[in-house]
Write a structure and sequence with these properties.
By secondary structure, this protein is an alpha+beta fold. It has one domain (3-93). The protein is 27% helix and 23% strand. It contains three helices and five strands; from the N terminus they run βββαββαα. It has helices spanning 37-43, 69-75, 83-93, and strands spanning 3-5, 23-25, 34-35, 49-55, 62-68. A three-stranded mixed sheet has the order 2-1-3. A two-stranded antiparallel sheet has the order 4-5. A hairpin with a 6-residue loop joins strand 4 (49-55) and strand 5. It is globular. The two termini are 27 Å apart. The model has no long low-confidence stretch (mean pLDDT 89). Bound molecules: zinc ion.
Amino acid sequence: MFDTIKDRLFCPFCGKQCKEDDYQTKDAGCLLASLTINELIEQYPNEATIKIYHTCDYCGKWIVINLEMLHLKLSQKDKPLTNEEFEKWASEQW
Ligand SMILES: [Zn+2]
């Protein structure tokens, strides 16, 4: 089983936009859920990396994206964390 990604990502090779639920992952709940990347971050906070993959409908390239969850969570902040804030945040995660 697997889950699908609701976000319509752009192909890094040809630049075309994929459809909803084109990307799959086996690194989350494998519940046939349709999740946005933000929902993945919220629901699987302890995963370090979630790999999503898809074959582009337009250029046929096999695309694998490693979502670095720590980086994505930090990117959701408006401004960079100070070292102190980061250490506090990291200690709460693990
Ligand atoms: Zn493509």
